[in-house]
Sequence to fold (326 residues):
Amino acid sequence: MMFVPFNNARDIGDRFLALLCRLGIEPPVHSTLEDELCSLTQLFEVTKNPALAEGRNHEELFRRAARLHDLAAKVLSVETIDEFEQKFVPHLRLIAEGGDRRASLGEHDDTGRKIAELYMGCLAAHVGENVCLDSPTAAKGDNPDIIFTVTPTEGGVFRPPEKWALAIKSIQTTHGQTIFERIKDGAKQIDRCPADKGMVVINASNVHRPHESLWETDFTDIESAIQELSRQLDQLMSAAISDRDTQDWNDLFKGKAVCPILFLCHSVVRLPTPAGAQTPTPLKMLRCYDATGQPDQVGIALARKMNDFMQTILRGIPGSQWCWPK
Fold:
């Protein structure tokens, strides 16, 4: 996980806005989406005059700016792939076509949920090929959100290509039964889809309790912040497992849906960095959980690679045959 100087963040923000302009995408005037797209500019003004944002507004501004920067970097990193215009741009158009002025890139509403699908699609594009995102406006709710092709290797030997699916479910609660039901919904979608296998992704970025405790903690280094976010996500999975029979999980994962279950979370913490003693710093994670004791090894490898790209794609530069995206 790397420190991102303001100048680099400004460059990514400018390039992302230029991409949206090229595509004819403009957020509704005086909307939350417009505020979010301006958050990096607002952040630069706050660094010059901290009185412009104090207390909870200060935290929210950094969270919005971090969310925009991370999304922009991931989208720009796939701008050159063949599927971008047809499969990724429709999700971006929600920024202009959401209709609801309160719609947000990251909140628990229709736009926010679809943007989470776009984000995961960008990661999937770096671990597989032929990425297909379900329609953001005409989805029937019975298909997984992302399908892509993977060519696994075993002992250095390529195996036949496999179609993998990701079913992304957003939560706002720490209630174990609700989390289990969302996992169940995702597994059912995968079982009905044309993919060979798939994993359920629980988007926990809008569970508020972890955000508050992470922001209020004085971490001394990034490792301790990662450990705390891991602990918070462990609690969510523990709630889903608590007082539940093992057979319940075996029944969910006896078809195409396989473990691990992935928990996705984005937050902001304060860390000592070259910029200062308490620099607001993005923290993000894709954490694996096995509820059956028999995790799919290809699934684990894909999850680890996607988590690596979450951390390393910070500048929005596409990869090539000779280098990884960054």
Q: What stands out?
A: The two ends are 12 Å apart (CA to CA). The mean pLDDT is 84. Strands lie at 129-133, 146-150, 153-154, 157-158, 162-170, 197-203, 261-273, 276-289. Residues 6-312 form one domain.
